[in-house]
Amino acid sequence: MEATNSSPEASSFVPLAEHQSRTPSSFYSGPPVLYHHSQSCKIVILERELLATPALSALRGQDGASNSTASQNEQDGDEKEVAISDVDIWVTSDKFLLFSRTASTGVSILYPSISLHALQRLRVPDTDAEVQGLYMQVATPGAPSADDEEECITMTVVLPADATLQESTEAAEEAETPTQQLYNAVSACSNLHPDPVEQGDEDDEEDGPKFISAEEHDGVFQLGNGDLPPPVDGSSGWITAENMDQFFDADGNWIAAGEPPSFPLGPGAGTVRAREGENGVDENEDEDDTKWRKTD
Question: Could you tell me the residue range of the domain that residue 120 belongs to?
Answer without folding.
Answer: 2-163+175-191
